[in-house]
Specification:
- The chain is α+β, with helices and mostly antiparallel strands.
- Helices cover 15% and strands 28% of the residues.
- The protein has one domain (44-275).
- The protein is globular, with a radius of gyration of 21 Å.
- The protein starts with 23 loop residues before the first helix and ends in a 22-residue tail after the last strand.
- The relative contact order is 0.25.
Length: 297
């Protein structure tokens, strides 16, 4: 009999070249342990945010045209919403500390702490060495979706962003309106940097409204039509002064294809909301990370 995974295990994409040891099942049956138990994470004061969001004033609206990105600024202590306005559309979100663009959203660490998809109560963590919550998700009109039968959910921090380099590798063609390029153009326009200066500051995104997961058999990243409809929004509380950029992905609702002009695309809006005077009197923004920085040297 050919060596291979037993019925209880699932094959990798390629047949294994090594036969199983006799205790293979015992090794597989060990219960998993959560890498980062979040019981000691500082908890966001959701009651405070819930109270503050009851009385908000809209102070800015930025429209992202289809297949384009725009920057927006949110002062600490304000809320912002990514809003579906015209039709089902996915948005690729980047966040920076408005005063230091080297501190940026850290998708991988956010995923390690909160899981593959984010919703109300989860936080957007920043890169080292500051590593702190840049924003907290305070409302998600798609939280009813949960997990579907394919293992999919919305607002992932597992995808990276559609980009022209991967498109070149896979399709051998130039396409200029991938989220990576859209975000690069938007950041350059906002800051006065050249495209070459702006590009390295663009980072892995939060895929707002995108419905994604990993296939059950090969664990490959999949997408399916977003359940988002006009009026839906994902709301964040800015923990620090933020510069953000959001791209209306050329994939539209990401039901079929991206990195081309084929998919139906719609605009997105970013709304910036100011809480009432005194609503956050007892709120304090997060300090930068407490690690001493010695690295054992
Ligand atoms: Zn995209």
């Amino acid at each position: 009999m050919a060596a291979g995974p037993t019925d209880e295990s699932i094959a990798m994409k390629y047949p294994p070249q090594n036969s199983e040891p006799t205790d293979a099942e015992t090794r597989r049956e060990i219960a998993p342990v959560v890498c980062y138990p979040v019981t000691t994470l500082p908890e966001p004061d959701m009651a405070l945010y819930r109270a503050a969001r009851q009385n908000l004033t809209l102070i800015d609206t930025i429209i992202m045209p289809p297949r384009a990105a725009k920057c927006f600024r949110v002062p600490a202590g304000h809320f912002f919403r990514i809003v579906s306005v015209d039709g089902p559309q996915v948005g690729d979100l980047n966040l920076w500390n408005a005063h230091d663009l080297n501190e940026r959203f850290y998708s991988g660490k956010t995923r390690a702490l909160h899981g593959t998809h984010v919703s109300t109560g989860d936080r957007m963590w920043s890169s080292f060495p500051a590593m702190r919550p840049m924003a907290t998700i305070t409302h998600d009109t798609l939280d009813w979706y949960g997990w579907d039968a394919d293992g999919g959910s919305v607002h992932d921090v597992i995808g990276t962003r559609c980009d022209p380099y991967t498109n070149d590798v896979l399709n051998g063609s130039d396409y200029h309106y991938c989220c990576h390029s859209n975000l690069t153009r938007a950041l350059a326009e906002e800051t006065g940097m050249s495209l070459q200066e702006a590009e390295p500051l663009v980072h892995d995104v939060c895929n707002v409204f995108m419905c994604t997961g990993f296939t059950q058999d090969t664990k490959q990243y999949f997408m399916k039509a977003s359940p988002v409809r006009p009026g839906d929004y994902l709301e964040f509380f800015a923990e620090i002064d933020l510069l953000g950029a959001c791209s209306a992905c050329p994939g539209g609702d990401c039901s079929t294809t991206h990195s081309s002009d084929t998919a139906a695309c719609y605009p997105l809006a970013v709304e910036v909301w100011k809480p009432a005077e005194g609503a956050l009197a007892h709120w304090q923004g997060p300090a930068v990370n407490g690690y001493s920085g010695g690295h054992g040297a």
